[in-house]
Amino acid sequence: MKVLAIIPARGGSKGIPRKNVVNFLGKPLIQWSIEAALKSKVITDIAVSSDDDDILQEAKKNDSIIAIKRPLELAQDSSRTEPVLAHVLETLKPENYDYLILLQPTSPLRTFEDIDLAFSILKDAKADSLISVCSLGYHPYKSFKVDENGFLEGIINNDFPFSPRQELPITYRANGAIYIIRIKSFLKNKSLLTDKTIHFKMNIEKSLDIDTEADIIQIEQNANNC
């Protein structure tokens, strides 16, 4: 069983300049994901994809990391993750691997235990992929949107905004920490979401995602509690 972990870390960032190498609790942000991947018992290879030479040099400090230079067209603010993963697979030859695990550097509180447990759950399930999730503080079905005439209407229907929460379907949000998919499924669908995707629920503390300076302060306050 060959499992490839991909850590995408472009150089640019609007919220925090050079976010992926910013100091977080004493080490570069990307190093948290690298160390979690290195400690994992299921990951066999680790690749860091970046357009930034400094980030690639940081990754190369770990001898077992494969550093892959990303084309500039895949490192824009509007760039999607799927083409970045496809580029890594094309570089390393997808037939060499059975599973792909996406680990985003902005989720530093995700641990190797989380990764290994999520992988074990996926392997035991009749599924093709897994996405880590967490609970929502507010049920999305209770939301409104504005119609073409400027009037409010329920985002799903006009009954749900007034329904007791207990009567609504359970919903989650992807927390960005762990994505796992069979290589064959990813190459076929070019998406991390398949017809057979299961979820891996994580707590809110571990699900915090770094996008702004305020996020760093919040996560540092919660880090010791995880």
CATH architecture of the largest domain: Alpha-Beta Complex
Total domain units: 2
Overall strand count: 11
> Beta-sheet strand percentage?
15-25%
Task: Please write the string of helix (H) and strand (E) elements.
Answer: EEEHEHEHEHEEEEHEH
* Number of helical segments with 4 or more residues: 6
The chain-level mean pLDDT equals 91
Classify the fold: give the CATH topology of the largest domain.
Spore Coat Polysaccharide Biosynthesis Protein SpsA, Chain A
Alpha carbon gap, first and last residue: 30 Å
Q: List the uncertain runs.
A: none
Shape: globular
Name given to the CATH homologous superfamily of the largest domain: Spore Coat Polysaccharide Biosynthesis Protein SpsA, Chain A
Which percent range fits the helix content?
Answer: 25-40%
How are strands sequenced across the largest beta sheet? 5-4-1-6-10-7-11
Largest sheet: 7 strands, mixed
What is the SS-derived class?
alpha/beta
Task: Give structural notes.
Helix content is 27%, strand content 24%. The chain is of the alpha/beta class and 226 residues long. It folds into two domains: 3-134 and 172-223, Spore Coat Polysaccharide Biosynthesis Protein SpsA, Chain A; 137-170, no CATH class. The longest helix is centred in the middle third of the chain and has 13 residues, at 112-124. The radius of gyration is 19 Å and the shape is globular. The model has no long low-confidence stretch (mean pLDDT 91).
